[in-house]
Amino acid sequence: MNKNFSFDLADTVEMKKPHACQTNNWEVMRVGADIRLKCMGCGHVVMMSRGDFTKRAKKVLTKANDPVNRKLAHYVAKEEIARPNFK
């Protein structure tokens, strides 16, 4: 099954099955061939392949630069995310 939803760095996504802490919300910390996710309940970090992620993801809850989300406690602006300088 092919899902056509877009996600980006620092977005919050909902997964199909809950984590051990009973939370379905995950923050996208790395995007590439592998996806790194952080549990919004307990802070546990996992990495999975993009194929596994698209199978297990349900929907995007919040986008990173959406002005409505600036009021949330876990919001981090895209400009404030630490990125390495590769030149």
TrEMBL record:
Record Pfam families: DUF951 (PF06107)
Q: Which domain of life is it from?
A: Bacteria
Full protein name: DUF951 domain-containing protein
Species lineage? Bacteria, Bacillati, Bacillota, Bacilli, Lactobacillales
